[in-house]
Each structure stands twice: as structure tokens, then as C-alpha cells.
Backbone:
């Protein structure tokens, strides 16, 4: 476990000790705030719960994009700079390397979420929502981000440069979003199949409304574990090349 946290601390420091990480945070918060003000808090009268639901709908998408964007550097940058050899020569296993890097990206995501707390807090100015609704909503965003970060980690593990990692990760995430769109146009039984695979509607939507969906917990955990396992297998295969 100590090795995992050393990797996580090293990579998290690479985010927050450089201007690159703070620029991403600033741009993500700016985009989140603009979308929330333009769409979530539009002129028409809305119940506080509806405003909160809109916030988590928009914030979920922004956080997912941030997760894919920040993970492009995890392994691809190591290959570009030549430091991947040092990691492979370390006593850490492939699973520990993948887990450590995944945790570093999740720590960055949690920092972003903490900085965005002022947005749902604005609802209390003219409305009222429960703290439990906000907590459940952020749980949903964290689960969604976890899946996106795992996908990005896998994409970075199979890519030789950061741009390719970003493209592969974005395409993979778009597949899960496309399933949501396809499910709305499909008939049974494909409608249920695509709806289950998709990130939104069946999986993420309940959290936006302050409801914990145990089936969605298992779904996001499975997606996260599956892509982290693929990343581990990718590293193992490259050791033998």
C-alpha cells in the first residue's frame, strides 16, 4: 500500500505544483460556472431541486471531460520523457502503478469538486435543498468521474504520446455517452441494453435527484475495475515487448 500512495502523491504533486494543473482547474470551474448560470439558473422559475439537478447534470459532464483530459499524461508522458523505464525497473507491480496513478487523478478530481461547492451553495440564497441531496449528487459525480478516469488511465497505458491517449480516451467515453443517445431512438430489447451500458439516464440520473442507486454503484465500480484491469494488462504486455 505504501508504494501505491507514493505513486499517487508523486503524480498528484505533478498536477498541483505546476501551472498546467491550476489552468485546468480554472478553465473547468469557469466552464462549470458558465453552464450553470446560463442553463441551470436560467430566467424561468424553477424549483430548487430542479436547479440542483441541472447543476449535477452539467457538472457531471464537465468532470467527466476533466477526468479524461488529466489522465492522458499518466503513462504517455512517462514514455515521452523516458521515465517509464524507471517505473518499470521499480519494485512496484503493474497493478500498484496503475492504482497509484488512478488515485492521483481522483485526488485532483476531488479537489475540483471541493472548489465547485460554492455553486450548489448559491441555491440557498433564494431557495432550499437538503445537504443530503447535495452529498448524493456529488457521490454520483465522483462515480462518473471514477469511470472516466479509469478509461483515461487505460487509454494512456496503451498510447505512446499524450495526444493519442486523449483521443483514445475521449472516443471510449463518447461511446458510453452515445449509448445513451442511441437508447432514446431504439426499441426493445436494444433500448434497455443501450440504456444500461450508457453513463446517463439509468445509471447517473438517480444521483442527480438525490437518490442512491445500488445498481449504479455496482455498474460504475465494474467499469472502473474493468478498465484499470485492462491498463494493468497493457503494462504487463509492454514489459515483454
Residues:
Amino acid at each position: 500500500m505504501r508504494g501505491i500512495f507514493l505513486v499517487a502523491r508523486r503524480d498528484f504533486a505533478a498536477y498541483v505544483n505546476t501551472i498546467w494543473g491550476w489552468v485546468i482547474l480554472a478553465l473547468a470551474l469557469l466552464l462549470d460556472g458558465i453552464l450553470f448560470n446560463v442553463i441551470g439558473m436560467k430566467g424561468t422559475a424553477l424549483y430548487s431541486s430542479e436547479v440542483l439537478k441541472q447543476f449535477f447534470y452539467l457538472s457531471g459532464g464537465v468532470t467527466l471531460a476533466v477526468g479524461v483530459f488529466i489522465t492522458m499524461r499518466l503513462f504517455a508522458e512517462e514514455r515521452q520523457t523516458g521515465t517509464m523505464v524507471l517505473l518499470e525497473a521499480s519494485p512496484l507491480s503493474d497493478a500498484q502503478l496503475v492504482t497509484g496513478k488512478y488515485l492521483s487523478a481522483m485526488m485532483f478530481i476531488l479537489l475540483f469538486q471541493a472548489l465547485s461547492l460554492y455553486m450548489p451553495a448559491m441555491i440557498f440564497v433564494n431557495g432550499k435543498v437538503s445537504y443530503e441531496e447535495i452529498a448524493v449528487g456529488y457521490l454520483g459525480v465522483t462515480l462518473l468521474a471514477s469511470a472516466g478516469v479509469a478509461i483515461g488511465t487505460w487509454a494512456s497505458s496503451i498510447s505512446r504520446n499524450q495526444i493519442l491517449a486523449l483521443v483514445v480516451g475521449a472516443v471510449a467515453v463518447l461511446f458510453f455517452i452515445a449509448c445513451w443517445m442511441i437508447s432514446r431512438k431504439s426499441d426493445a430489447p436494444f433500448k434497455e441494453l443501450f440504456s444500461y451500458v450508457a453513463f446517463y439516464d439509468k445509471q447517473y440520473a438517480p444521483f442527480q435527484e438525490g437518490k442512491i442507486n445500488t445498481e449504479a454503484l455496482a455498474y460504475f465500480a465494474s467499469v472502473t475495475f474493468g478498465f484499470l484491469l485492462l491498463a494493468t494488462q497493457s503494462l504487463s504486455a509492454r514489459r515483454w515487448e
Residues 131-157 form the longest helix (27 residues). The chain has one domain: 2-239. DSSP finds 13 helices and no strands in the chain.
